[in-house]
Structures are given as C-alpha cells and as structure tokens.
Write a structure and sequence with these properties.
306 residues; alpha+beta; Arc Repressor Mutant, subunit A; two-stranded antiparallel ribbon
C-alpha cells in the first residue's frame, strides 16, 4: 500500500484541467458573433442558452458577463441581449504545412535526437513496411522544437539499409524526407496519410511539455520508392495549441484539363466490332497503343492527391 502511494506521489505529471463551462460558452458565443452575426443582432435568451448548452442560468450569466465586460454585447432590461461590437479578428499563431518545409522556409525550428537504432517492428509497423516481424527495421525518434519550445514528436521507421545511411546525417537541422530525396537521391513519393485527434499519454505529455490528456494531432505518413517499396513510415504527435493541418482542395483549370485528358481516352472512330471468339476482358486489337499513363505519372498523380 505504501509502495503504491509512493508511486503516485513521485509522479510529476499533471492532468489537463478543462476550462470552466462558462469560459467554454463564452468562447463559443464569441466565435458565433464573429462569424455569423452583425452589430445590433439579438442573442438568444438566457433560457434558450441554458437549454442549448445544458447548464444552469448562473453559468450562462457568467459567460455573458465576460462578453459584456469586453463591450462585445449590451444587455437591455426587458428587451434582450444585443451585439454591441464585433470581436477583433483572431490572429493565427500556430504553424501549418509539411514538417519538411519548416527548415526550407528558414523557420526557427530544430530537432533533438532522442533515440536511433535497429528494432524489431511492432505488428502495425511491419505491415506498413512489408517486412516479417522477425526482420529488423531502423527507428529514428526525434523531438522537434519551434522557437525553442517543444512542438512535435516524430518517430520514423525505415528499412535497415536505408536507416543506417540516414542516421549518419545531421538530423537536427534537416528532415528525413529531405535526406532521402536530396542526399540519398531516392525518388520517394507519399502514398498515404492518416490524421486523427488523440489525448496525450504520459510520455507524449512529458516530452511535449503539456498536460496528460491534452489534445494532440496524430499524423501517420507512408512513403514509397521505386516499384512500390515502402521506404519510411512516420508517426508524429503535434501539440494542438501550436499546429493545425490544412488541405488545399481547389484545382486550377489547367489541372482539371490535364486530369480530363488522362481520364477520357479517345476511341478510334472506325473501331472494328469484336469477333464472336473474342475473350472478355482482353484487348480485341493487340496492335492498339497502350494509352494508360506511365508508372511515374501514376505515382505523381497519387502523390498530388495525397
């Protein structure tokens, strides 16, 4: 019993305490006014806000009092609550974009090497890297800083022969993707990404200097090379208060025309009808040219789609 108690008291980690409900409601209302309302618009009644957020009237009043103190709203007895002025536009202070771009854009970022070496892969790693469980892979584990504050944890798994060459490089000031492309001259392309929200466990919280249970953005990236050989698997944890993820979905007219040309393969005008002996699923005219895009083109299309 004493041993268990000493383990509890020895821990220096602190759990993330959520904001009080009235502050959460205040923030929601602030963003709602900023994005959806105009000066003079009326807010819902206190009773309606109580029902919407499932809280007491006292909690709602505390939230509204903060907005009133900031002169965002004005409350007129017997008439209601109205927007008095719009909140100042919020300034985004977090980073976004690909990690390999941070150094290229000369941002104040560097990585500290925490561990490197050959390891036996976990089942999930072995599946992605297409290696048997008993075959070693090379692991590189780094903590990235931005403006001298912990920013992200990056764990990379590579084939043993490639990983040993990567580990000889100075990884504090550059990215593994840059080393693979520029130093090792490998024509790598990104095959897959997975992004999800997670709660920081004890190790992630300690290294990123956040509370246990604090939100982090977890991103998994798979890269391949050559004939679809897996070359690196990244597993990264980003502090949600210092990073957000963006995806550009809009296509330019030239991109759309290029895709249309690849998709709409024209057929010969005087194409002969297939004979009765033609085998389904095979090309009836063996002399016709193969119009499918080359493997390198397919890789580029997949990489740009990711």
């Amino acid at each position: 019993m004493a041993r268990a108690r000493s383990r509890r008291t020895a821990s220096t980690h602190t759990f993330l305490d959520p904001f009080p409900k009235y502050l959460q409601i205040r923030e929601i209302l602030m963003r709602r006014i900023e994005r959806e309302m105009c000066i003079g618009d009326q807010l819902p009644t206190e009773h309606a806000l109580c029902q919407e957020f499932g809280v007491s009237r006292e909690t709602v009043r505390d939230a509204l009092s903060g907005l009133e103190a900031d002169a965002i709203i004005s409350r007129i007895p017997g008439q209601g609550t109205f927007v008095a002025r719009l909140p100042p536009a919020s300034r985004e202070t977090r980073l976004t974009g690909l990690t390999e771009d941070f150094t290229r854009f000369k941002l104040d970022t560097e990585a500290r090497l925490l561990a490197k070496g050959a390891v036996l892969p976990q089942a999930a790693v072995a599946d992605v890297m297409a290696v048997p469980r008993e075959e070693m892979v090379y692991r590189v584990f780094r903590l990235r800083f931005f403006e001298r504050q912990p920013f992200a944890l990056h764990e990379a798994f590579l084939p043993l022969d490639v990983g040993t060459r990567v580990a000889r490089q100075e990884l504090g000031k550059t990215s593994i993707v840059h080393v693979l492309r520029s130093t090792l001259r490998l024509d790598i392309w990104e095959d897959h990404q997975r992004i999800e929200a997670q709660a920081a466990d004890t190790e992630v919280a300690r290294l990123l200097d956040i509370g246990i249970g604090a939100p982090v953005l977890y991103i998994v990236r798979h890269f391949k090379v050559g004939n679809d050989r897996p070359i690196v698997l990244f597993r990264s944890h980003y502090r949600a208060d210092r990073y957000y993820y963006t995806v550009k979905l809009a296509q330019s007219p030239s991109d759309m025309r290029a895709e249309a040309r690849l998709a709409n393969v024209s057929q010969p005008k005087n194409e002969a009808k297939p004979s009765a002996t033609a085998v389904p699923g095979k090309i009836a005219n063996p002399s016709a040219k193969n119009t499918a895009p080359a493997a390198s083109t397919r890789r580029r299309l997949r990489a740009s789609a990711g």
